[in-house]
Design a protein that fits this description.
- The protein folds into 2 domains: about 110 residues, Nucleoside Triphosphate Pyrophosphohydrolase; about 60 residues, Winged helix-like DNA-binding domain superfamily/Winged helix DNA-binding domain (Arc Repressor Mutant, subunit A).
- The chain is about 25% helix and about 20% strand.
- Strand 6 and strand 7 form a beta hairpin.
- It starts with a strand and ends in a 13-residue tail after the last strand.
- It comes from Planotetraspora mira.
């Protein structure tokens, strides 16, 4: 998993990584502002991204310069291209240990939200291309949860969960080996039973 960050070039926290952000415009609501800022900073106009409000951060000492309230959003998408903004880059979340302000806390809250949502929603498929194999979906879960999963158990769970995956009737050999069935995200939003990460 990666986060879109930039290195601060002035105090406070000069030289540290910071999450991307922006200001809301007078005519915008929060979701529109989040989508605009993501498109501008990441250079992703028109790229389908699952975007949801994460949390509001507003405790008094977040910024040593002034009182700041931030509404953080979590964006999830597969294989995003490099940012078109020269100062922005995608960095692995595990490498972002010393960040500006409270941005590490915000990032870790986002990681935990993504991990939790993969347990009970079909959101894992948002990380995949429109047509994907069960092995590609399993790799998403392994990356987000940070641990290997048993291929047979995972295959059984995702293919038996009603409405999670829809077979396309096509196969691919892009994973190597014998042909694998391609699937699309099904109509289910909530998974029953959930995919527990125990």
């Amino acid at each position: 998993m990666s986060a879109l960050v930039w290195r601060r070039n002035k105090p406070p926290y000069e030289g540290r990584w910071a999450l991307s952000g922006g200001f809301i415009q007078l005519e915008e609501d929060l979701p529109a502002a989040a989508g605009r800022v993501l498109a501008e900073r990441a250079g992703l106009p028109g790229v389908p991204v699952h975007l949801e409000q994460l949390q509001t951060y507003g405790y008094p000492d977040r910024d040593p310069r002034q009182r700041v309230v931030s509404v953080a959003y979590l964006g999830l998408a597969p294989d995003l291209p490099a940012s078109t903004e020269a100062h922005m880059s995608w960095q692995p979340v595990a490498s972002l240990t010393d960040m500006a302000f409270d941005h590490r806390r915000i990032m870790l809250d986002g990681v935990e939200r993504a991990r939790a949502k993969l347990e009970y929603t079909s959101l894992g498929a948002a990380f995949c291309p429109p047509e994907f194999t069960v092995a590609e979906l399993r790799r998403v879960y392994e990356i987000v949860w940070g641990r290997p999963l048993d291929p047979r158990n995972f295959h059984r769970k995702v293919t038996k969960t009603e409405g999670f995956l829809m077979p396309t009737g096509h196969t691919t050999t892009r994973d190597g080996g014998r042909p694998a069935m391609l699937h699309r995200r099904g109509p289910a939003v909530l998974l029953h039973p959930p995919m527990l990460r125990v």
